[in-house]
Design goal:
By secondary structure, this protein is of the alpha/beta class. The protein contains 13 helices and nine strands. It has two domains: 59 residues, Helicase, Ruva Protein, domain 3; 188 residues, Rossmann fold. The chain has a seven-stranded mixed beta sheet with strand order 5-4-3-6-7-9-8, with helices on both faces. A two-stranded antiparallel ribbon has the order 1-2.
């Protein structure tokens, strides 16, 4: 197994920025064990026969999360797969911003627009155990994954998922609204791991990445409860344009930075 890991790391060095870590996670997946257990107890054993095929998939740029079927988000194991955007650590900035803004007023109702795997909504529900939430998405595949995640994480009794187009058709108001919309300019060239595998409709937006913000922001005044906040994920260089959209709707906004110091979340309230 040690030799197989060394060889796999060498193979993956051409396509991954973390080749050794990828190799270890793939080995653990092939064994059906945690990486920690594998490293502590199994390295002197034989490599499982499935390992080479997994390494081959990763060498062809397939995202690790699609191969293993799991991505950690806010300390939750979130199921992902083809057709569903992979949650990024940067998106945890939205939960952090909401937690600060609502420290003295825990939300009772949460709306996640473009829920995808359900990662943001389920993270929020794990943070506020008395809250209930709704996740909306246009993708049937994403909604099916989100429902499975809620069930597996024991949150299905507090989470509902339904098909919809952003907040259109919503009849109630919410204490917290979360949204990670498509915001990549179609002219931008993404890494093969993303461009060749993740769903285009969850990544790209017209008008230099601003088109979906122009649809979402005007809906917020009718969706936010009194004292409620919305946390909207931002792409690079988009904070000023989206802040102006908010101001046009009479909304107040403030930028939050991610761990890399990038403007990642727009905290919005009336």
């Amino acid at each position: 197994m040690r030799d197989a890991l060394r060889a796999a790391a060498a193979t993956l060095s051409a396509t991954s920025g973390t080749p050794r870590l990828d190799a270890e996670l793939l080995m653990a997946h092939a064994l059906g064990e945690s990486r920690e257990t594998m490293l502590l107890r199994r390295l002197d054993g034989e490599a499982p026969s499935a390992f080479d095929a997994l390494v081959g998939r990763r060498a062809r740029h397939e995202p690790l999360a699609y191969i293993t079927g799991i991505r950690e988000f806010w300390s939750l194991d979130i199921e992902v797969g083809p057709g569903v955007l992979i949650p990024r650590p940067d998106s945890e900035t939205l939960i952090e911003a909401a937690r600060r803004a609502l420290a003295k007023r825990p939300p009772a109702t949460i709306l996640d627009l473009g829920t995808g795997s359900g990662a943001l909504l389920l993270a929020a529900l794990s943070e506020w155990p008395d809250a209930n939430g709704v996740g909306v998405d246009r993708s049937d595949a994403a909604l099916a994954v989100a429902e499975r995640n809620a069930e597996r994480l024991g949150l299905a009794d507090r989470a509902q998922f339904r098909k919809g187009d952003w907040g259109g058709g919503e009849k109630r108001r919410y204490d917290l609204i979360l949204c990670n919309p498509p915001y990549v300019d179609p002219a931008v060239r993404l890494m093969p791991d993303v461009a060749d595998f993740e769903p285009e409709e969850a990544l790209f937006a017209a008008d230099e990445g601003l088109a979906e913000y122009r649809r979402i922001v005007p809906q917020l005044p009718g969706l936010l409860a009194e004292g409620g906040v919305a946390c909207l994920e931002l792409g690079a260089g988009q904070s000023s344009a989206v802040s102006r959209l908010c101001a046009d709707q009479g909304l107040v906004s403030k930028v939050s930075l991610d761990l890399a110091g990038q403007e990642r979340c727009l905290l919005i309230h009336s």
